[in-house]
Amino acid sequence: MRLLVSVANSSEVRAALLGKADIIDVKNPAEGALGANFPRVIKEIRKLTPKEIPVSATIGDMPNLPGTASLAALGAAHCGVEYVKVGLKGVTEVEQATTLMREVCLAVSELPEPPEVIATAYADASLIPALLPEHLPEVAAKAGAHGCLIDTLGKSSQGLVDLMSPEELKNFVVLCKKAGLLCGLAGSLSKDTLPLACKAGPDLVGVRTAAINGDRVNGLVQKEKVEELKSIMLSAGSL
Ligand SMILES: O=C[C@H](O)COP(=O)(O)O
Q1: Which residues form the active site (predicted)?
Q2: First CA to last CA across the chain, in angstroms?
């Protein structure tokens, strides 16, 4: 299992790396849960991060606009990242979501070393409303994406483990694995709730709020917090 730590700027990268993050995830929390950052920031973070540590970039909490999504994904791919994450906010049906994700996969596939595409659904999808997480593996597999992540859109109230039961999390992981998809879990995971997410057996768990001091937009990633989360993940993974 790997620990993904979301950073908003280059000054947070050092702390995330010193704390032994396995994946550096670039996003812009000021623009949403999966807010897209600026190409200059993504490129700088890729440059600062050792080659052996993958960098991912989010392209936004996407409306149902496959053209916009595919263009944004190609832009992120050109910044040299290993993963591109797409938030499926504006789609509710499997067919719509598959069309959007297929265009994203097609767009990045033109590069000699294309990034892996990660489709993201929200655990609070029924409140948005958006594609339900249980449909995500089917969408990702049909579209030719590499993986699936569940996150939360609302960051002020309930987190992943409040919104989904251990059985639902486990089922999601099983569906992903059956389809040969990388599988990630995130959404306001804390020191206390991280082990519950790990128990479901995903390939990665993602954090930001728990790794920073202050609020999600203005706070900065702290090495000690990342270190602690990594050790919690490692011990929970062996439960
Ligand atoms: O991809 C992971 C997210 O950045 C998680 O953020 P959060 O822990 O603030 O919900």
Answers
A1: 27, 85
A2: 12
CATH number at residue 225: 3.20.20.70
Distance (angstroms) between ligand 1 centre and the Cα of 224 equals: 17
Q: What would the pLDDT profile of 197-234 be if each residue is shown by its tens digit?
A: 999 999 999 999 999 998 999 999 999 999 999 999 99
ipTM of this complex prediction, to 2 decimal places: 0.98
Q: What is the 3-state secondary structure (H, E, C) of 51-88?
A: CCCCEEEEEEEECCCHHHHHHHHHHHHHCCCCEEEEEE
Which residue range forms the structural domain that includes residue 75? 2-237
What lies within 8 Å, CB to CB, of 228 at 6+ separation is 191
What 8-state DSSP symbol labels residue 167? H
Predicted local confidence at residue 214, as pLDDT: 85
CA of 138 to the centre of ligand 1 (A): 23
Ligand 1 atom nearest to 206, measured from its CA: 2
Global pTM value: 0.97
pLDDT attached to residue 237:
67
In a 3-state reduction of DSSP, which class is residue 154? coil
How many domains does the structure of the chain reveal? Answer: 1
